[in-house]
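User: Design a sequence. Structure:
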C-alpha cells in the first residue's frame, strides 16, 4: 500500500464487513490520546493545553540551537537555585562595606560606586541575581501551571513553591528598604500602611515615617536582620518543594553555571546597579526608577489604603493556593498497585520512581517468600505516571486504567488479526503528553485516522512501556514498533530518559538487541507542537523502515557559540530591562498630618459589689474601678472644623495612651490651623487640655506635619523642618 489511506478501502473485517463499515464503528468509539493521562481530570484542560503548546513551541525553537543541558527554559528551576546561591553569597560579601544604620546606610551604599571591581560589582551581582531568580521562578511557575502539574500529590510542590516565591519577594522588598533612598522611603511607608491595619502595635507604625528625625533606628535593624534570616525560611520551603522528587536537579550543569555567572558579571559591569537620591520623608517625587521584579506593588501602595492592600494580597494568595483543588475534578483511581505474589524485590521500581512514591518493606509472608523485600506504592505521593510499570521485570505492578496484561492481550489480538488478513501493521505506544497527544484513536482496535497502518496505544508516559511489550510485539509478527515520548520538560520526570536507556541497553530491564532487529524499532522524543513532524516521521518509518533508536539533534560548535551569546543577551536584557524602569506616582495631595500620643484623664466607673471575689481580695464593702478617658482631636482650618474625632485608650482595660495619625486634605494656599486635644468624658462637654495655632503656606502637593507628645508638646514640620 503506497497510499496511507488505502487501509480504509482494502482492509476487511470478518465480523464488521468492509473497511467503510469499520470506519463508521471507529467514529463511534473515538477517544483522545490524552485520556491516558491523569491531567484529563483538570478543569479548563483545553485552555491550559493551548498556552502550554506555546511554551513547548518556544522550547522546541531554542532546542534547535541549544542542548537541554544549556537550555534556559527547561532549566528554569535550576537556574533560579543558582541565582539564589549567588544572591546569598554576594549579600554576605556586601557586609564588608555596608553599615546597617539608618543614618549611614545610604552613604555606605553610595560609596560602593567608587569601587567598581569590588563593592559595586558585588552589589550589582546581588541585585541582578535576585532579579534573575524572580524571572526564572516565574517562568518555571507558569510552565508548571499551564502543563497542569499541580494536581494530586503535586499539591505540596505547588504550595511550597508559592510560599517560597512569596518569601523571596518579601526579602527583596526589605532589601530595597535597606538602601534608604527615595524608593526605600516609599517602600517603608507602603509597608507601614499595611501593618497599621493589624492590631499588633501600640501606635501607628506610619508615625515613624512622618519626618526624617522620627524614624526609629531599632526598626531599621529589625528590617536588616529579617532580610538576613528570611532565606532560611526559603531554604526550608525549597527542601519541601523537592522532597517528593527522586534525583532532583538542584543546580545547572557546571559549564552552564559558569556561563550564567559570566553573563551575570558582564551585565553587572555594563549596567551597574543604580541609586536614587537619599530618602526624604518630607519630600515627594513625580516618578522614580524601580525594579519591577520586587517594587511593582508600589503602584498599589501609593494609591490604595491598607485594608484594600490586605484584601488584594490575601485574595491573590488564596486564589493561587487553592488551584490544586479548585481546578481538579474528582480524582480517578489510577494509582498503580503491587501484586505481592509476583514481586521479587528487585528494587528497580524503587530506583526508577521519579517521585519517591515507592518504598521497600520486609516481606512478612513466609509461605510465598520470593525475596526478603516487597515494594509498596504510597497512593498519597504517587502521581500515576506509570513509570514503575515499565521498570518491573516480573510485571508485578498493575496500572488500573492501563493494565500491562490487558495491553498485552490487545496487542496479541491486533497482531493475530493482521497476520490472518495478510497485513503487516505497525504498533505505536504514544505518550499522552507528547507530540501524539492530538491523535484520535479507537481504544478497541487501536486504529488512528492520522496514522494509517498503525495500531496505537496511548500511555501516560513513555516510561510505562516495558521492553518486553516491544519484544513481544516484534516476536508476534508486528512490522515495527514506534514509541513516542516527550522531549523537553516532560510532565513526568525521567520516564522518557529511562525508556531510552532501556532501549540502548543501559538500564534494567533492557531491550534485548541481540534477539531483535533494532531497525524495526523507532523511539521518537517530540513535544506537542511537533505533531505534523511526528506524523511524517511515523509514516517514513512505516514505508522506509530505515530509522531506529532515538532521533538526535546535531548541533554545530558555531551554533552552540551563537546560542551562548544569545543566552547571555537574554538574561542580561531581561533582567536589566525590568530593573531600570520608571514608575509614575500619583499626584500628592496637599495634606496636614497630625500625630499625637496622649494619656486621657482618669475616669471612675460606678461603684459595684465585689461579692464574686474571694474574701481576702474584697474591700470592706465596695471598690472603684479606673480607666482612661477618650482623647478628642479637633482640627480647624481658617476657623472651619475639618477633623473632629475621639480616640480610645490602648490596652485591654483602656488604661494606656490614646494615639492616632490623622490626615486632613487642604487646598493650596495660606491657612491658619488650630489644633485642640482634650478629654472626651462620655458625651459631656470636652475639656480641652492642649491647643496650638499655626499659620502656614501650602504649595500644591506639599504637606505639613504636627506631632504631639506629653514630653515635647507640639512640634511642627513643614518644608525641611521649618
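Assistant: Done.
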Amino acid at each position: 500500500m503506497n497510499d496511507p489511506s488505502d487501509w480504509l478501502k482494502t482492509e476487511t473485517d470478518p465480523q464488521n464487513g468492509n473497511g467503510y463499515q469499520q470506519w463508521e464503528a471507529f467514529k463511534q468509539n473515538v477517544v483522545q490520546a490524552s485520556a491516558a493521562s491523569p491531567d484529563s481530570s483538570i478543569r479548563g484542560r483545553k485552555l491550559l493545553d493551548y498556552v502550554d503548546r506555546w511554551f513547548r513551541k518556544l522550547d522546541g525553537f531554542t532546542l534547535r540551537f541549544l542542548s537541554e543541558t544549556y537550555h534556559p527554559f527547561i532549566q528554569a528551576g535550576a537556574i533560579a537555585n543558582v541565582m539564589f546561591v549567588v544572591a546569598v553569597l554576594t549579600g554576605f560579601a556586601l557586609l564588608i562595606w555596608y553599615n546597617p544604620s539608618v543614618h549611614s546606610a545610604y552613604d555606605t551604599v553610595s560609596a560602593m560606586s567608587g569601587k567598581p571591581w569590588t563593592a559595586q560589582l558585588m552589589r550589582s551581582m546581588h541585585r541582578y541575581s535576585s532579579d534573575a531568580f524572580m524571572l526564572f521562578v516565574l517562568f518555571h511557575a507558569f510552565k508548571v501551571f499551564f502543563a497542569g502539574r499541580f494536581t494530586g500529590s503535586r499539591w505540596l510542590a505547588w504550595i511550597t513553591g508559592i510560599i517560597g516565591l512569596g518569601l523571596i519577594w518579601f526579602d527583596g522588598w526589605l532589601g530595597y528598604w535597606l538602601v534608604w533612598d527615595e524608593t526605600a522611603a516609599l517602600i517603608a511607608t507602603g509597608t507601614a500602611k499595611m501593618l497599621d491595619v493589624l492590631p499588633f502595635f501600640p501606635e501607628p507604625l506610619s508615625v515613624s515615617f512622618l519626618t526624617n528625625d522620627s524614624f526609629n533606628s531599632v526598626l531599621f535593624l529589625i528590617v536588616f536582620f529579617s532580610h538576613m534570616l528570611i532565606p532560611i525560611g526559603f531554604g526550608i520551603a525549597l527542601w519541601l518543594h523537592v522532597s517528593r522528587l527522586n534525583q532532583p536537579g538542584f543546580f545547572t550543569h557546571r559549564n552552564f553555571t559558569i556561563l550564567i555567572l559570566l553573563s551575570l558579571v558582564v551585565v553587572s559591569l555594563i549596567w551597574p546597579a543604580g541609586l536614587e537620591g537619599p530618602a526624604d520623608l518630607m519630600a515627594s517625587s513625580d516618578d522614580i526608577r524601580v525594579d519591577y521584579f520586587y517594587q511593582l506593588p508600589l503602584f498599589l501602595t501609593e494609591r490604595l489604603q491598607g485594608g484594600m492592600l490586605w484584601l488584594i494580597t490575601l485574595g491573590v494568595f488564596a486564589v493561587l493556593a487553592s488551584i490544586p483543588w479548585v481546578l481538579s475534578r474528582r480524582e480517578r483511581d489510577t494509582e498503580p498497585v503491587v501484586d505481592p505474589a509476583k514481586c521479587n524485590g528487585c528494587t528497580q521500581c524503587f530506583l526508577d520512581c521519579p517521585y519517591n512514591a515507592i518504598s521497600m518493606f520486609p516481606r512478612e509472608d513466609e509461605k510465598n517468600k520470593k525475596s526478603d523485600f516487597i515494594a509498596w506504592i504510597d497512593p498519597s505521593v504517587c502521581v500515576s505516571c506509570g513509570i514503575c510499570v515499565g521498570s518491573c521485570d516480573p510485571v508485578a505492578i498493575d496500572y488500573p486504567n492501563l493494565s500491562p496484561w490487558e495491553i498485552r492481550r490487545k496487542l496479541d489480538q491486533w497482531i493475530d488479526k493482521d497476520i490472518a488478513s495478510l497485513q503487516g501493521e505497525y504498533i505505536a505506544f504514544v505518550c499522552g503528553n507528547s507530540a501524539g497527544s492530538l491523535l484520535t484513536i479507537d481504544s478497541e482496535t487501536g486504529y488512528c485516522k492520522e496514522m494509517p497502518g498503525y495500531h496505537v496505544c496511548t500511555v501516560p508516559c513513555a516510561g510505562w512501556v516495558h521492553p518486553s511489550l516491544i519484544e513481544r510485539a516484534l516476536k508476534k509478527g508486528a512490522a515495527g514498533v514506534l514509541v513516542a515520548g516527550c522531549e523537553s520538560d516532560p510532565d513526568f520526570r525521567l520516564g522518557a530518559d529511562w525508556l531510552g536507556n532501556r532501549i540502548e541497553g543501559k538500564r534494567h530491564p533492557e531491550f534485548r538487541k541481540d534477539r531483535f532487529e533494532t531497525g524495526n524499532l523507532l523511539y521518537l522524543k517530540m513535544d506537542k507542537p511537533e505533531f505534523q513532524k511526528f506524523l511524517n516521521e511515523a509514516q517514513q518509518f512505516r514505508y522506509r523502515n530505515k530509522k531506529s533508536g532515538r532521533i538526535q539533534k546535531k548541533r554545530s560548535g558555531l551554533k552552540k557559540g551563537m546560542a551562548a551569546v544569545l543566552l547571555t543577551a537574554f538574561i542580561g536584557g531581561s533582567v536589566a530591562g525590568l530593573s531600570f524602569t520608571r514608575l509614575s506616582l500619583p499626584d500628592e495631595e496637599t495634606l496636614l498630618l497630625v500625630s499625637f500620643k496622649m494619656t486621657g484623664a482618669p475616669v471612675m466607673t460606678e461603684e459595684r459589689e465585689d461579692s464574686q471575689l474571694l474574701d481576702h481580695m474584697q474591700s470592706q464593702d465596695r471598690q472603684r474601678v479606673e480607666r482612661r478617658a477618650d482623647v478628642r482631636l479637633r482640627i480647624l482650618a481658617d476657623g472651619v472644623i475639618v477633623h473632629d474625632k475621639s480616640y480610645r485608650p490602648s490596652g485591654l482595660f483602656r488604661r494606656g495612651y490614646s494615639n492616632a495619625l490623622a490626615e486632613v486634605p487642604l487646598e493650596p494656599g495660606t491657612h491658619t490651623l488650630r489644633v485642640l486635644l482634650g478629654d472626651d468624658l462620655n458625651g459631656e462637654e470636652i475639656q480641652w487640655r492642649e491647643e496650638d495655632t499655626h499659620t502656614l503656606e501650602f504649595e500644591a502637593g506639599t504637606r505639613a506635619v504636627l506631632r504631639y507628645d506629653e514630653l515635647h508638646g507640639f512640634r511642627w514640620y513643614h518644608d525641611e523642618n521649618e
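The two ends are 96 Å apart (CA to CA). Confidence is low (pLDDT under 50) at residues 1-39, 546-555.
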